[in-house]
Amino acid sequence: MTATAKEAQRYIGARTRKVDALERVTGRAMYAADIKLPGMLYGKVLRSPHPHARILRIDASKAEALPGVYAVVTAQDLPPIEKVAGSIGGELVISLVDLRKMTIAHDKALYDGHAVAAVAAVSPEAAEQALELIDVQYEVLPPVEDALEAMKPGAPLLHEDLFTRTLGERPTKPSNVAMIMESGFGDVEKGFAEADIVHETAYSTKMVHQGYLEPTSTVVSYERDGKLTVWSTTQGAFGIRRSLSQLLDMPLHKINVIPTEVGGGFGGKIYAILEPIAAMLSRRALRPVKIVMSRAEVFRATGPGSPMHAVIKTGVKRDGRLTAGYARIVMDAGAFPGAPVGGAATVSFGPYTIPNIRIEGYDVVTNKPRVQAYRAPGGTPIAFAVESHMDEVAEKLGMDPLQFRMVNATDEGGKATNGQPYNRIGLKEVLRQVSRHPCWTSPAPEGPHRGRGLALGYWSGATLTSSAIVHVLPDGTVSLLSGQVDLTGTRTTMAQMAADEMQVPLEDVTVRMADTETAPYTDLSAGSRTTYSMGAAVHEACKDAIRLLKIHAAAHFKAPAQDVEYGGGMFWLKENPEQKVDMKTIAGNSARAASGPIAGYGAVTRLQPAHQFAAHVAEVEVDPETGKVTVLRYTAFQDVGKAINPTMVEGQIQGGALQGIGWALTEYYDYAKGMLRNPTLLDYRMPTSLDTPMIDAVIVEVPAPDGPYGARGVGEVPIVPPAAALANAIYRATGKRLRGLPMTPEAVFKALNGK
Hints:
By secondary structure, the protein is α+β, with helices and mostly antiparallel strands. Among the domains are: 3-29 and 465-517 and 530-542 and 561-598, Aldehyde oxidase/xanthine dehydrogenase, molybdopterin binding domain (Aldehyde Oxidoreductase, domain 4, 2-Layer Sandwich), CATH 3.30.365; 378-461 and 609-752, 2-Layer Sandwich (Aldehyde Oxidoreductase, domain 4). 28% of the residues lie in helices and 25% in strands. It is built from 21 helices and 30 strands. A seven-stranded mixed sheet has the order 3-7-1-14-11-12-13, with helices on both faces. A hairpin with a 5-residue loop joins strand 15 and strand 16. Mean pLDDT is 96; it is low at 1-6.
């Protein structure tokens, strides 16, 4: 941003109303389930009733003969698997071969709810009836639910061709352990030998769901000329296009993906799960096909958050300085490899200065749905382990838990867990703000069963590729075109940036999130990268548009373009500031000039990471008779770099904290012999407004070193500390340390009664 533009900054940092608020509250916003096309059919998916079974035979003849049924498909209707290559995803990458097998079962059903066949019919009722007529013969196999059990010799194998990837030689036998990773630096054994206290603890967490309100859905229309149009509730339209190209053996230019509004994703709407099935049905029927998942299907067959088993060991000197850190992290990927082991390893000791670190991570497959990202994937469970552990270490030293963290907090130049140095970060400023805030300085909550807990959170943030086009229209208004899916108010923040960069009123800017045929290429909306990376692309596009406008203004002045200045919506000559012309005039002339209309282009890729740090303080009351935990007060501190729109930033922090509270206290997948027993929002207990107090968000602004505004990603790190903050608060309220999630009333009651 130029100095002149900075002086004229009006909208960046302002609490601007969402530009698309009206269409959302009035119901005019279009979601995938709202799409209706002429001649449209309704798709339904037949799902395995077994968590692990070999598919011996599928007979769909009776379903195909049913009146109103236009198509029935199975894995046999996909192109040869040999044509599939590569991988897809954001923070959790999956091979496209595995994605194909996840989309629809091939030789085996690998989890309760795995798609086996699909039907397209004239009505949802006819499609449901047809599903009942499909005869599938299974050979039921023993399932494996838990990652530790799956690692044992003799455990049932999910994949006979899965060999553990390690830094060593390739194993000779298949295994349920997909990968073993190692990271760290220094000499851990030396660090433990130098320590005055060595402490070791173990923790476990269960599978959880993102809990988005809108079920996964899609509409697909295959035309006779081989063109495929897809309406999808997705976090990344270009990723869906590439997946379909590979899975269906179609060229990219024959596929157009139109991202609809997204009713919540949180990382769970990245992979093409329904789109390939709907495309197969549409191609067979030559009519558009809509598929909308039921809530039970969402739980059974989309991508939840990964469970974890972890062992944490640290060494510390009497003065509180950490000397060594070791973590053994076992993460459950579900039916196909790709658990967030790398994310968990990065988060684990990320907030701490530790000279010697070793982390071992295990990616393990089990008979459960393949996990997807969930807001800082891997971060919440490992922070629960590490931050609970650090509280215990502080207690052993007789140190205040905040003081212990301030002694060991990392800073610019410190090493991340992979050994790479941090650029400018704001963790110490976050801790300073905690130390001065009433949530920490006020007396501890009164009462025999009340307590206060503190925990830190970290997320490195993704960057990837973003691009944008800024059109300056003949009347001087601005239209911004992007392929970045709007999950959390992207249109608003991009409009704020463009208005300030172009120095026009906010109401003169429109932002359009376009389809893959129209928009410039942009990676998915995930990893807290949208405002950071897309903002940089918008900045570049606006600079390019102003450059082009200066060329037109130079022609107007009959002077070289380098002599033209711009500011406040006016162009002038450096040597003659009194000679001015407004932007609207230049924009109008550009439509008739030989050099043509104004379209600025901007693209960025692989920016420096904009590391995010947070600290949460929770106060709770525990009912000793029932074990119920009531959250009395919750305060979330977060370095956001620069809050482009403070109201929306606070909403992101509060939303992430609330999801973390649910993960901590009530939410989990309940499996029995591989079958999910609570696939509804009635039985899967998400917290409501009645379960939590108002969440206070404290914005800290330490500008990120890259990007034009200093903004950091916001959406991921708020979910990282809540479980640990609550566990530490529960300990201070009860004297009992819980080392498993969720900390349900039953779990707390058992801990209180020594069970």
